[in-house]
Here is the input.
Amino acid sequence: MKKYLIIAFILVSISTFAQAAKDRQAILNVLEKQREDWNKGDIEAFMQSYVKSDSLLFVGKTGPTYGWQNTLNNYKRSYNGKAGMGVLTFGIKKIDFLNKDVAFVLGSWHLKREKDEPQGYFTLIFKKLNGEWKIVVDHSS
Here is the structure.
């Protein structure tokens, strides 16, 4: 009996580890898609990684913004056209799973534009909704 419990524990552990690896890659894919969309100058596509809800929380230099549409409007005001958006790169520092459906991401961002190169850090909270990882909180500075 003890032998079967140990085998069951090992199988569950392997399955959990494999799922975490898949989820980690899925989050990295979301971030890569965001980077690609940004670099195409497509803010609307970039925003598809965020939960389309009034509960979305974005915290930036001007403070908190609630809601998907408000966040989109802020991006459009702050980054006028492809030249204003520049070329975005990310540096992902860590991805921690808070539970099977919630992840914390820490990273850096860098924009290369004709006249400047702003950069900073971000923390994101991702939530798995209907099988898709979506950003529900973004704190970028």
Q: What stands out?
A: The longest helix spans residues 2-39. The mean pLDDT is 91. Residues 64 and 129 are 23 Å apart (CA to CA). The two ends are 54 Å apart (CA to CA).
